[in-house]
Request: fold
Amino acid sequence: MYKNQEIWKEIASFLPENYRISGETSPSELFIDWKGNKIHVDHYPNPESDAKIILLHGVGGNGRLLSFVGQPLFRHGYEVLSPDLPGYGYSEVNRRNVSYNDWVELVDHLVDIETRKDERPVFLFGLSAGGMLAYHAASLNPKVRGIIATNLLDQRDQTVRDYAAGNLFISRVGILAIKLLSRINGRLMLPMKSLANMKAIVNDRQMMKLLINDKTSSGSKVPVNFITTLIGYKPKVEPEDFNIPVLLVHPEKDNWTPVHVSMIFFERLKSQKKLHILQNAGHFPIELPGINQLEEHVLKFIDSLCRDSGRSIAG
Reply:
């Protein structure tokens, strides 16, 4: 569990002090049964809040790494859930069987669980590949009240794949080889850091090294089938027909997937949408003032939609 993980404590030291979890803002750790698996969730409970936010990490993260988002949301009175998606963190799954479809179905399931509990609106926040995951899940589940994303990376687009992989050989020749390999043995495990540009996940070099060596996040391995289902996933609703509000809070100094890469998909969105650039922030947006701007824009977005629904801000 994260409370006993030394590498997490080292990573947390790189966060601005007021974005680190403490005794008062520490999440509880629980497991949710799903399709014979046990999904680990960081839970910041507040039954009196006006909304619930589910945080979604990307292919180099885990639920605890999003504490810099969960902590301020909880501090402002919201209930927050941050799952370890299958193959990452402390979720107990058969990693060789994981596909990207599982990620989408799990998030859809979590939304259903939370909306069955009560009438509070549910928002999805996605970091990196988690942004597109939020979209994919919301296209299945119209109960989602709004989406917040730091990136919107439609892997069906070749330009997106070029940036995500980090070099043209992997994104073009390598992907063809992976597709072929998936037909032979889709359960073969490959390190994500050999397939994606993990060295650009965060702009601080020391923190980057910690993440790449962390087997619960950027140092994780995924099955070949996960990669092929990720790059080929087709949403139930295309952006031209999407109607759930979207906030894109894109890091200004994202050295992995710059703003124009997310704009390919963002510009196609029909729904109510807003874009804010996080100044001085990298792909993992922990730098000032970007991290402060992230907090400000996310709170305003959630509050405005809660007010539209007849609910006031939690606090």
Q: What stands out?
A: The chain has ten helices and ten strands. The chain has a mean pLDDT of 94. The radius of gyration is 18 Å.
